[in-house]
């Protein structure tokens, strides 16, 4: 019979580990530069797509784990549970009728799985064709992150696709097992967007510095939501929380 204390410690470990990883994912996906310099719309669907993108990186790494495949499976399940709970809170924060929250969640889940499988398709179908894989990734980003925006910049799509390529290789091959299982994922820098050009080759205007609803916070503070969708602030180093926005 398996020692109950061992099972308890394992459960505690993977829950803490999942929360730690997911917090880093959400923080990376919500980095303000995506929505200012990167010109990604700060709206529900693009923001969710950026979170989905980063969850996919972790999902792929956990699939190939050889240190503890059983624990990796448990972490994956917890990871998606945390994602759906967070998604539900973000839906509520949009002010929708409470009776429609679960319907909206189901719609978002369907879009999320389409997004995830699009990345899978790009890397599986074009594993040996760098050019076609890159085009497929750019297409996935155009559909799921930029919501098929006909005025999207090719330069923007290329930089985002290159970011997905880099982070995939980084997570799959560049992060040592001990770093990963300690939750210390060394995410690479987000793309440099300051010198982007439009589709005619002309330099874009200066990046947007202020976006409605987007808050710049001092590290290591992150903005998060209660289950009811109310915002509060969490210091990920000290594990303290505050209803009041921390000052820079």
Characterization of the model:
- The chain has 248 residues and is mainly alpha-helical.
- It is 55% helix and 5% strand.
- The chain contains seven helices and three strands; from the N terminus they run αααααααβββ.
- It has helices at 4-29, 44-63, 69-93, 101-125, 130-144, 154-174, 177-181; strands at 221-225, 231-235, 240-242.
- The protein has a three-stranded antiparallel β-sheet.
- Strand 2 and strand 3 (240-242) form a beta hairpin.
- Helix 1 crosses helix 2, helix 1 packs across helix 3 and helix 2 packs antiparallel against helix 3.
- The chain is globular, with a radius of gyration of 19 Å.
Kindly list the characteristics that best describe this protein.
mainly alpha, 55% helix, 248 residues, globular, 7 helices
Low-confidence segments, ≥5 residues, pLDDT <50? 1-10
How does the helix and strand content classify structurally? mainly alpha
Beta strand count? 3
How would you sum up the major sheet?
3 strands, antiparallel
How far apart the termini lie comes to: 53 Å
> In one word, what is the shape?
globular
How many helices? The count is 7
Q: What's this entry about, in short?
A:
The chain has 248 residues and is mainly α. The protein contains seven helices and three strands; from the N terminus they run H-H-H-H-H-H-H-E-E-E. It has helices at residues 4-29, 44-63, 69-93, 101-125, 130-144, 154-174, 177-181, and strands at residues 221-225, 231-235, 240-242.
How are the SSEs placed, and which strands pair?
Layout: H1 4-29, H2 44-63, H3 69-93, H4 101-125, H5 130-144, H6 154-174, H7 177-181, E1 221-225, E2 231-235, E3 240-242
Antiparallel strand pairs: 1-2, 2-3
Helix pairs in contact: 1-2, 1-3, 2-3, 2-4, 2-6, 3-4, 4-5, 5-6
């Amino acid at each position: 019979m398996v020692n109950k204390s061992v099972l308890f410690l394992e459960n505690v470990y993977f829950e803490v580990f999942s929360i730690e990883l997911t917090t880093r994912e959400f923080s990376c996906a919500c980095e303000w530069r995506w929505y200012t310099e990167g010109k990604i719309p700060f709206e529900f669907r693009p923001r969710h797509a950026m979170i989905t993108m980063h969850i996919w990186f972790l999902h792929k790494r956990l699939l190939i784990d050889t240190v503890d495949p059983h624990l990796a499976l448990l972490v994956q399940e917890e990871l998606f549970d945390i994602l759906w709970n967070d998604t539900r809170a973000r839906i509520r924060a949009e002010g929708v009728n409470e009776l429609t929250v679960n319907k909206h969640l189901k719609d978002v889940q369907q879009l999320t799985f389409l997004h995830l499988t699009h990345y899978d398709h790009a890397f599986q179908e074009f594993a040996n064709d760098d050019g076609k894989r890159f085009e497929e990734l750019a297409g996935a980003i155009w559909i799921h992150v930029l919501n098929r925006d006909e005025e999207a910049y090719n330069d923007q799509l290329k930089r985002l696709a290159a970011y997905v390529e880099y982070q995939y290789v980084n997570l799959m091959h560049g992060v040592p097992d001990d770093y990963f299982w300690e939750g210390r994922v060394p995410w690479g820098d987000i793309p440099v967007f300051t010198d982007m050009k439009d589709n005619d080759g002309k330099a874009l205007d200066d990046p947007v510095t202020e976006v409605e609803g987007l808050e710049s916070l001092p590290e290591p503070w992150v903005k998060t939501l209660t289950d009811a969708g109310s915002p509060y602030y969490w210091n990920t180093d000290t594990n303290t929380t505050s209803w009041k926005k921390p000052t820079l």
